Amino acid sequence: MMRRSFLAGIVGLLGTKKMQAETLPEHGPIVPSWHPSFRQPLDRVKDRISYYYNGQRDFVVFRNGTCVLLDDGLTDQLAAEFASKVFSSILGYHPDMNPSPMDDGNILVGYNHPAVNVVLHDISQANWPEIEARHLDGLTPSEVLITPLGPNKFDEFGKQALLGRAYMFMDAQRPEVAEIRRHA
User: Fold this and answer.
1) Domain-located, residue 81
2) For 149, what's the count of Cα atoms within 13 Å in the CB-facing half-sphere?
3) N or C: which end of the chain has fewer CB within 10 A?
């Protein structure tokens, strides 16, 4: 599996990739303005996560499709608590993303904590006008992502990765567990 990664940084933070919690504004974490108007079918997201992890991982699925990977043996309550802590950890620091093209044509967007988003290729293609128009709204204020094309310049792959990350931000701001999926 080929892997692309984006080097992330916040302008004005002396080149550090992570924004520490104490630098967050009092009103909450810095988040992008893009809230995609369309959702991906959760049944397909769950199916793809199970496939990508060979059916060997438990995970929490949130309303907008973000999945938090779990250790085995957690009760539903502990799983939900762990997932909330993962979101707090991601929002407490700048969320580096590591998008990977998958063998089925989709993109798996990972973060610096055990959370992932799947961007379903056919859903992104069906909603391409919005992605094309709004992908830069998927950046947080003053954020600069360095890509092979240059700072904040995104090809189709990068625009889709920003879509996945936009879903993560939506779930992190208003976490609503849709399901806790257990492996066989």
Assistant:
1) yes
2) 9
3) C
